Amino acid sequence: MPIVKRKVETNPDGYREVSVEFRAARAAQLEARGVHLRTGRIRCPMLDASRSELTYGHKALPRTDKKALARWARALGLPPVGVKTIAYLSGPWYKALYNLVRGDFNDDAVNTGLIIRLKHGVNTGVLSTGQFDQIALNEFVWSIRPSLKGTVINNAFLHTPDAAQLYVDSDAMPAVMAHNLMNANKPRPGTGRVLSKFEMEQLLLGVLGQEVKLDMARPHKTSRALLVRDMHDFYKYGVFPVPREEGLQAAGLIDVPSGIETP
User: Fold this and answer.
1) Rounded to whole angstroms, how far apart are CA atoms 213 and 14?
2) Which tens digits make up the pLDDT trace of 252-261?
3) Which of 55, 100, 138, 261 has the smallest C-beta neighbourhood within 10 Å, fewest atoms?
4) How far apart are CA 97 and CA 146, in angstroms?
């Protein structure tokens, strides 16, 4: 069988990603295995991607004890103390002290835990039902790029030149938050707004994004941005963008394939 080799390219803005050929082959392989149809998913996409072995053959976060959490956090460029605190608070409120003392947490309790409850439904909606929701992703992208309304944000579109420099960036945060707030389950979500803003800025862009030059008039200015096609693959398949793949592989937590066999 022919093999499409993994090739990392840098686009004109300075963003690093795998080639479209490899991306398409990887998507076809993962869809043939039904990865995109997975149900019962964790509503935190970072944790969901890391606690599944379907994409990389084993879990990027193999255990949920404090040593495994610290190793995982460092590989993602996150502060271990902050990650542990969020993890211990992710279950029911009455388990927080128990989790802290034990130095562990139950990822099965995240979807009904304290942090999810405090968010009051303020989120992208992409994993809210426990599986990938294509319609929710479409609406999320349309909210920040209204000119795309009516376009399905799937592989058929994302693997074309029209999506080559389509980003979610720091300038899009007001539109992102306006979209997320539309999903709130109460008129005044309070903490939901704060937690969602933290997730979007510090996790979605802060961890998965890259510094790119989007303003040609100011060549020394950079913006934090995430390619929409990388965001799509992260939510749909649990695939990390190139820099995060490299960090997790260097830490010995995942094995990134050097190539994909095609029929």
Assistant:
1) 7
2) 999 999 999 9
3) 261
4) 45
- Cβ contact 256:249 at 8 Å: yes
| Alpha-carbon span 225 to 94, nearest angstrom | 37
With 0-12 / 13-18 / 19 or more C-beta atoms within 10 angstroms meaning exposed / middle / buried, residue 235 is buried
- Residue type for position 135: I
- C-alpha gyration radius of the chain: 18
| 63: nearest Cα among 253, 256, 257, 255 | 253
Residue (of 57, 35, 26, 54) closest to 262 by Cα position:
26
| pLDDT tens, residue by residue, 194-215 | 999 999 999 999 999 999 998 7
Determine the angle formed by the axes of helices 134-144 and 228-237, rounding to 10 degrees.
Answer: 160
User: How far is residue 116 from each of residues 128, 130, 189, 197, 235, measured CA to CA in Å?
Assistant: 10, 13, 12, 14, 18
